Amino acid sequence: MTFADIVTFGETMALMMPGQGKGIEHAKTFDSSFGGAESNLAIGLARLGAKAGWFGRLGDDPLGRMILKGIRGEGVDVSRAALVEGEPTGLMLRDVTWGRSSVYYYRKLSAASKMTPAHLDEDYIRQAKLLHVTGITPALSESCRETAFAAVDIARKHGVKVSFDPNLRLKLWSMEEARPVLQRLAESADYYLPGYDELQLLYGTDDFDVIIEELRKLKAVSIVKGAGNETLIVEKDRIDRVPFFPVKQVVDTVGAGDGFCAGFLSGIVRGMSPIEAVRLGSLIGAMVVQGAGDWESIPPLALVEAELGSRKHVER
Prior knowledge:
The chain is an alpha/beta fold. Helices cover 39% and strands 22% of the residues. The chain has 11 helices and 14 strands. The protein has an 8-stranded mixed β-sheet with strand order 4-1-9-10-11-12-13-14, with helices on both faces. The protein has a 4-stranded mixed β-sheet with strand order 3-2-7-8. It has a two-stranded parallel sheet with strand order 5-6. Strand 13 and strand 14 (238-243) form a beta hairpin.
């Protein structure tokens, strides 16, 4: 039986992007890929040498089979993922025209949206060192919400650490609906990975001191992304600040957050301190934005180690 050190789950959708630099409306050809916050993270973890597992429900259709083969091919354990006959795989279309990126989702009634707690494998979660959950899954449907809570309950029952990235998606639900769900998951987490803009919405304020006080009420170590040009590490009465790594050229910001989380969590399971893990995550996020794709630009461990070595040499 196959197990993983870090387990995550959620919806992964097929991704179609127009070729030849054209918008969707005028394109004749499209490039295909796939993307989902959780599977992006799992691929990043695998590239960084961690034993990662992803599960979810995909349609037993060409898109679902393409996705499952792709994730498996990146070294992620997908033994608990399911291809479901008669239910579609979600689809997203993305284009960049006039310097603006637009995404169109076709995910209603997808196989992933019909996940229930009965689809969870308790033994698979129990054996992991860490369970990663995002706020996207509970936004998909009521049954997905119950599944997210149930997965966290299983992890807590067996002493498995929980990390939570709110990944707030207001196209999926309202702020009023999202707030109590995301706050409940944050209260159950050991590592909380919000963006500072998400915290402003979740707490209904842009007052920095009020937001920090709310984070200090949590048991989690909070890793706050995008608070200026640095990442904050908030743990009770202590705040540490880790500056971003400089980037020469930004090609595509899609996937940077997932790359950061993959770097951070891979560092945590390797025994790094939160500060060391944030530095690793920040470096990977900086490397990701210099390439294109949801997960394609997440670097392998050897390249990350080479980059770390070259930066240390320059600092000397």
